[in-house]
Write a structure and sequence with these properties.
The complex is a heterotrimer of chains A (305), B (335) and C (261). Chain A is mainly alpha-helical. Chain A has one domain. Helices cover 72% and strands 4% of the residues of chain A. A two-stranded antiparallel sheet of chain A has the order 1-4. Chain A has a two-stranded antiparallel sheet with strand order 2-3. In chain A, a hairpin with a 2-residue loop joins strand 2 and strand 3. By secondary structure, chain B is mainly α. Chain B has one domain: ABC transporter involved in vitamin B12 uptake, BtuC. Classes of the chains: A mainly alpha (305), B mainly alpha (335), C alpha/beta (261). Chains in contact: A-B, A-C, B-C.
Chain lengths: 305, 335, 261
């Protein structure tokens, strides 16, 4: 029982990271019908930006003296990473995706694979292919309830992710740009005819999705201790599966899917074998495609004939 | 009857030519160059097979290294099990080796084709881009599985029971005999009613359905054939370097394959052949630039997609270059 | 007896009742017109009949057998062929290839036959080619057989789509606005071709069309829908004076504008 609770807590914290990344996949797919393969790499760049900006803010001195890194500096790290990733997302859209936006479906897909590959390998050249230990932006504090260990890091991950998701919800529901995003995902041509500057809205979508992924990157670094330039491949894939599981194009779906994938992964690691924790995502993907391809919260889209 | 005889004669002549070229290659080239020539042949098989699904059918697999891995491990394992049986029945000569080698390759192709079915059935019922994700996942998972399969050597790789590794069956003759066979078979398939239907699926799946095309069945079949082809390439690859290791089939390998078919022209068999050779040669030329290779490949993919998404040849075959251009210019003048 | 019969068909998209309780029967060998203002549900009905959409309620009987739940390819194989409102030819393929794609029933050779180029494969291929050229001949496209379909002018693409549909050897042909974008001369030729399909090839034709000149001239029976519901059915003379039909059209658009030719 304690073990089960432990796994659920770990799963929810990991799952909220997946959810943050899945949001970017689902928003972009909702509007452009494009699997943004480079999204996992934006997540990776976000993690590295956090790594370097924490370094620039002198985190090693705090670590050497066993002092806690101040919370406000931690927030600066988070905001810097989110802003950098947003910029990267916008750049990717502008340079790589916009020129092929109206090409046949495979062209943007291959472009996205190319961008993903480029960032992975540019990352290996810039950041070195070796894993880096993530700086202790948050010093670990353990609490124990009836044998279940909860750390402040897991709690922070959960709370930060929750706040960001709420923020996204408000953004999409209450702001003009958010409403325009929903209009585009409903019908991009009609939105254009209504005078919405679609380029601008797509740019904002990439910025918002990328910023969320960067936050996920920092939380991932805190949780998993090490980062490397290829971390976006598998994590990105899992987050994409989360988006498909929840119903691609659906924002609440991405959150639910992310949490479920995180849980499934932790429970597999805990009860089956740690080696198959990555395989379970793939099994889930196959099952969802077979049984309910529109996802848990997705709607069946009727193609216009 | 005359037809059968003629075909048999062509078949024998082609094998003789390949044999002759093989002898010449071994005499005239260093071992280093010979290796590149063999790799080029294996690449051609990979590219022609992948092009069937990615080019002709318009579904996108980005995890074909996974099928190559299944074929490589399958062929290596079956080959090792089969060799003693063949030796007992046929002696230890070339005939016995050829028998167990080719049977092993076919077994590898069968395993790869079956895994293609398992991957293709759920994902090909839906829009093609799901296939990209499922194959990406499959490629990763299959590596994890081989990494943990102790009876196949786990992370160190599978080298058979002999301390010197798998027998070096893969010679110029066998590589290019398989290249010829696969190119002819896939070419015939592409230019047939099945190929037309696959192209129709790429062009407009809803219209193809309305024309009674069994779209799912054809897509899955094409995908399984494509996977089986990658399996053959994997078996040849395994017997070229004494063993198979999980890291031979990383995601980069799948990317290499995609570069092969994109550079030459998605949907063109001649393009895939040129692309396969291009990648084998450019890999060697960039050997000293290993860490930049994938950055360059990535940029190449992006730039081709933006500037010339149809690749070098587009969907044309080399021998159609002249003919189609004529038809095209005729149309322009009539407009 | 009727070849196709719809009984109380409903199709709902989210909150939109696109087709509501539509029933009609199409006699074998007739030319049946399906008209109505834009957005009335005509194309949706075509999509329901051909299996692209699954109806929420109702039966669709082809020669007495229910088609509900079958995939589009199965329905096509049973002899229901169609064209599309927004032309869906295979643009990068040649004209001849476009037609040949629909010839599965003439083709018994397996994939292995094709790969090995067996005699059976070659016989099938010849039969396909021959039939395709006959059909292209009927529609005056045979001289364009080797051209890339996407480069054809609009009217030829529409005729190619019909030729391709006929390759299925259908009993029932559904034409979705075949005269759209055609000039009056082309539309007259189309009239003759539709009659030819029925008289010489024995086809039953259902026609969705906005061009009233075409509808009134070739159809024996006309079924009118508006907002997804049946509002009238009758012969052209009756429909012309039906007050409900006039009201539906006048509320939306001027039928006389459509009937200028």
């Amino acid at each position: 029982m304690t073990q089960l609770l432990q796994q659920i807590i770990n799963g929810l914290s990991l799952g909220s990271i997946y959810a943050l990344i899945a949001l970017g996949y689902t928003m972009v797919y909702g509007i452009l019908k494009l699997i943004n393969f480079a999204h996992g790499e934006v997540f990776m760049v976000g993690a590295y930006t956090g790594y370097y900006s924490a370094g620039a803010l002198g985190i090693s001195a705090y670590e050497a003296q066993h002092r806690d890194f101040p919370v406000y500096l931690g927030l600066i790290v988070l905001v810097t990473a989110m802003a950098t990733a947003a910029l990267l997302g916008v750049l990717i859209e502008l340079l790589a995706y916009r020129p092929v936006r109206n090409a046949p479906r495979l062209t943007p897909l291959i472009t996205a694979i190319g961008v993903s590959l480029f960032l992975q390998n540019a990352g290996m050249l810039l950041f070195s292919p070796n894993p880096q230990r993530y700086p202790a932006i948050l010093s670990e504090v353990r609490f124990e309830f009836f044998g279940v260990i909860v750390t402040n890091i897991k709690l922070t991950i959960f709370v930060v992710a929750l706040c960001l998701m709420l923020g996204l919800h408000l953004f999409v529901q209450k702001t003009w740009t958010g409403r325009a995003m929903r209009a585009l995902s409903f019908n991009i041509d009609a939105a254009k005819l209504m005078g919405i500057d679609t380029d601008n809205v797509i740019r904002s979508t990439f910025a918002v999705g990328s910023a969320l992924a960067a936050a996920g990157g920092i939380l991932f670094g805190l949780d998993q201790i090490t980062i490397n330039p290829l971390m976006g491949v598998l994590t990105g894939l899992k987050a994409f599966v989360a988006a498909v599981l929840g119903g691609i194009g659906s924002i609440p779906g991405a959150v639910v899917g992310g949490l479920l994938i995180g849980l499934a992964e932790q429970l597999t690691a805990g009860y089956l074998s740690a080696e198959y924790r990555d395989a379970i995502t793939f099994v889930i993907l196959i099952l969802i495609l077979l049984l309910k391809p529109e996802g848990l919260l997705g709607v069946v889209r009727v193609e216009k004939v | 009857m005359k037809r059968t005889l003629l075909r048999a004669a062509i078949f024998v002549a082609v094998l003789l030519v390949i044999y002759g070229l093989g002898v010449a290659c071994e005499a005239g080239f260093t071992e280093y160059v010979q290796r590149i020539v063999l790799l080029a042949g294996i690449n051609v098989i990979l590219a022609v097979g992948l092009n069937l699904i990615n080019g002709t059918t318009g579904q996108f697999s980005i995890g074909h290294a996974g099928f190559m891995a299944v074929g490589a491990y399958g062929a290596a394992y079956v080959g090792v099990q089969l060799a003693p049986v063949a030796h007992r029945a046929l002696g230890t000569g070339a005939v016995s080796n050829a028998f167990s080698f080719n049977l092993a390759l076919l077994a590898g192709a069968l395993f790869a084709g079956l895994s293609g079915l398992i991957v293709g059935l759920p994902s090909l019922r839906l829009r093609g881009d799901y296939l990209a994700v499922v194959t990406l996942g499959f490629g990763e998972i299959i590596r994890i599985l081989f990494n943990n399969a102790t009876f196949l050597g786990a992370a160190t790789g599978y080298f058979g029971d002999d301390p010197s590794g798998l027998p070096a069956y893969t010679t110029f003759f066998w590589v290019y005999a398989w290249v010829a066979l696969i190119v002819v078979l896939i070419h015939n398939l592409t230019f047939s009613q099945t190929g037309r239907s696959l192209t129709a699926i790429r062009e407009d799946e809803i219209a193809a359905e309305a024309m009674a095309t069994p779209t799912t069945r054809l897509k899955v079949t094409a995908f399984a054939i494509s996977a089986a082809t990658a399996g053959i390439a994997g078996g040849l690859f395994a017997h070229m370097q004494a063993g198979v290791r999980p890291e031979d089939f990383r995601f980069e390998k799948s990317i290499d394959m995609i570069v092969m078919i994109i550079v030459g022209g998605l949907g063109s068999i001649s393009g895939a052949i040129l692309g396969g050779i291009f990648v084998a040669v450019s890999l060697e030329l960039m050997r000293d630039l290993q860490q930049y290779r994938l950055v360059l490949y990535a940029l190449l993919l992006i730039v081709i997609m933006i500037v010339r998404p149809q690749g070098l040849l587009g969907r044309r075959e080399l021998y159609q270059l002249f003919r189609k251009r004529k038809a095209g210019s005729g149309l322009e003048s009539s407009r | 007896m009727s070849l196709l019969e719809l009984r109380g068909v409903d199709k709902i998209f989210g909150g939109l009742h696109a087709v509501r309780g539509v029933s009609f029967a199409v006699e074998k060998g007739s030319i049946f017109g399906l008209i109505g203002p834009n957005g009335a549900g005509k194309t949706t009905l075509f999509n329901v009949i051909t299996g692209v959409y699954r109806p929420e309620h109702g039966e669709i009987l082809l020669a007495g057998k229910d088609l509900a739940g079958l995939r589009p390819a199965r329905i096509a194989a049973r002899g229901v062929a169609r064209t599309f409102q927004n032309i869906r030819i295979f643009r990068s393929m040649t004209v001849a290839e476009n037609v040949m794609v629909a010839g599965h029933h003439l083709h018994s050779a397996s994939i292995a036959d094709a790969m090995l180029r067996t005699r059976r494969y070659e016989q099938d291929e010849r039969a396909l080619g021959k039939r395709a050229h006959e059909l292209l001949e009927i529609f005056g496209l045979s001289h364009l057989a080797q051209e890339v379909a996407g480069s054809l002018p609009y009217g030829s693409q529409r005729r190619l789509e019909i030729a391709r549909a006929l390759m299925l050897s259908p009993e029932l042909l559904l034409l979705d606005e075949p005269a759209a974008g055609m000039n009056s001369q082309e539309a007259r030729t189309l009239n003759e071709q539709i009659r030819f399909l029925r008289d010489k090839l024995g086809l039953t034709v259902i026609l969705v069309e906005h061009n009233m000149a075409v509808i009134m001239k070739v159809c024996e029976t006309i079924h009118v829908v508006d907002h997804g519901e049946t509002i009238a059915q009758g012969n052209p003379a009756e429909i012309k004076v039906n007050p409900a039909v006039l009201a539906a059209y006048l509320g939306q658009e001027e039928p006389n504008n459509q009937a200028r030719s």
